[in-house]
Structures are given as structure tokens and as C-alpha cells.
Write a structure and sequence with these properties.
Layout (H helix, E strand, L loop, with lengths): L1 E5 L10 H15 L3 E7 L9 E5 L2 E6 L11 H19 L4 E5 L15 E5 L3 H7 L6 H13 L2 E4 L2 H11 L7 E2 L19 E5 L8 H14 L4 E5 L8 H6 L4 H4 L2 E5 L3 H10 L2 E4 L8 H8 L4 E4 L4 H4 L7 E3 L4 H13 L1 H18 L2 H17 L2
Parallel strand pairs: 1-2, 1-5, 2-4, 5-6, 6-7, 7-8, 9-10, 9-12, 10-11, 12-13, 13-14
Antiparallel strand pairs: 3-4
Helix pairs in contact: 1-14, 6-12
Amino acid sequence: MHIAYICDEYPPSPHGGIGSVTRELAEGLAAVGHQILVIGVSVKEHVAAKVEENLRGVRVVRLPRATNWFPWRFRPWWERIRLRSSLRKAHRESPFDLVECPDYDGWLPWGSLRGIPLVVRIHGTNLLYDTELCRPGQFAEHARERATLKRAKHLIAVSNYAGQRTLELLGTPERQFVVLHNAVDTTFFKPGAASDPSLIIFVNSLTKRKGLVELFAALPFVFSKYTDSHIILIGADASGENLAQNLCEQLSTEHRKRVTFAGHLSQEAVLIHLQRAAVAVYPSLMETFGVAPVEAMSCARPVVFSKLGPGREVIEDGVNGILCDPRDPKNIADCIIRALANPAAAEELGKAAREHVLKQFDKRDWIQRNIDFYNRCCASN
């Protein structure tokens, strides 16, 4: 197949979950012989001209953003017009069998190519996040996302929760979608040497949405009960308000000494920390899947994850992980303490977590599931 992916945050550009998932898909498909183009408007404002490169067998095209002299209200629409035009030109040069676009930001509000199946993968729209987090949002942004989803012939959702809730908000709850949970590389994220029985790990972007305010309210309960316990938080501060400093100010001087902000680290460094963790904690207030907890599970570490949203699709509470109420700091603390209090039981949870990931979220099976879905899309076109 020749597949075009729409992605404005393809690595190594600054990226989140959509960029990571797109890279895993694109490289995985290219490795088994499929022709892949990734095209998107660059997230970097200083890119003045189209950039083309080949990254591990994937052709990547980054288009420049609208310049500042362009009226700001019309910039998003101009960028989408240019993206669609570039997609059409690429199709004329080498026809696509299928085009996939994320729901987030609504990059194809007028559809893609006549006669070519458009797949939209539901990662989580601004509309969904704004609604669930009680944020005002932007009408035009939501309109572009609604239009893109409406024009998709086929829908994939990264979780049943994401698919159902998105379609409810669109007013089309009866519409069909296929759930293809995200996956991790279990050959990379794997168990390591003995863990540090006092180490708590958090790996994610530092934002309030990830439950960090509630986590820091929970830490005094944990630190008071286990005087040698300490936490390392890995990830860039994406809050725009120096969240790390503000969070530490909530803690006593003594407790602050047991908190380390490691910043953004390489995957190899993250792996070492995960393998050493006594427990990995992710009390997110809003997720549509949650790759970071699954990476820790793949390392056979006990994980505390949010019971909200897709939590129960990822973890069976008490069997292969622990689910917390991310709105309740005392409950978060109790869940962390539960893992620290009984290392033997925690190790068993970790082993069960690893087995669960191998069965449900292994990247190798995931690539084939996506190929099978794409084949069905092309056959029904």
C-alpha cells in the first residue's frame, strides 16, 4: 500500500502522543514494505520553506506555517488549504491507496482526495479535552475537528472511551468505529535489574492535566509513612507557568529534598529509571489512552493509573496494576503506599502487567492489526 499520514508534529520535531504514534506506525509499515508519506504543516514557526527528508524509510514533508503578516483568524484555514493542495499534488505524482489524519486540530475539514478512503484516528480532539476539563475552547477549532471527523469514511479510536465520548459530542453516537489501542515496543521496554524499593517514578509532560497538583498533594502522606521514599519526575514543563517550582512550594523544606525534576530525557535514560522504580504513578485527569503507563507496565513495574476515561481498558485493578481516583490526593497516596508496603505483591503486579502488555499492547501485533484494518478499508472503497 501507499499511505499518506497527516501529521504536523512528526519527530524529531517537538511532539506529543500523536507524533509518537504516527512515527511508530510509519516506520513499522515501511519496515514491512509499504510506501509511506508523512505530510504536515511544521510546528516550528521559523521554517520558511517546504522541507523534505527521508527518515528510516519514511518520506516526510513539512510545510511552512502561515507568516505573521497573514491575518491570524485566517492562518489555520490557509494552512489547511495549502496542506490539501500539497496532498493532491503528491497523489498525482504517486497515487495513494489511503489517507489517515488525526482528529486533533481538524487538518482536513474539506476531506482529502476523491475516491481515496480517508481514515481519521481518534486520539482526542480539542472539543473532547475542552469539554471533559471544563475549558472554554475555541469555536473555529472545534468546527474544523467536527468537519474532519464528518468527512472520514472510516474511524479508528485509540480507546473505546475516546471513540464513544467523541461521537457523543458530535451528536452521532450510533456511528461505527474500530478500537485499535496504542502499543509499545516490548523488546525495548522490558524488565531490568533489581528495583529501588523507595523510588516513585512519573514520566510525562508536566501539566496540570496529568494530575500533578493532586499528586503533590498526595506526596506528604507517602513521605511521612515511608521516610526513605523519593520521587523522580521525568518530562518537560509544558505548563507555561513554571509548574515544577509552584508544586514544590506546596511541600515542606524536608519533603522538597525528596523530589527530583529530571526534565526531558532520552528513551534510553527513561528506560533505566522505569526499570528501577518501585512504583510508577500516572494520576491523569484526562487521557484518551495513556502510552506512558503501558511503557512502565511493559518493564514489569507496578503502575498506579487513573480510573477515569480509558483506565479500565488498560488496567484491571488489583490484577495487573492499581487504579486511583486522580481527583482525590488521599486515594492517590493510598495507592502508592499499597505498592510500597508489600514489595512481593507489587512485583507480582508488575509481572502480570508485563504479560498483559504482551497480549494486548505489543507493537508487533499492533502493526499487523493496522494493516488488516487498512486492507478492509481499501477493499470496501
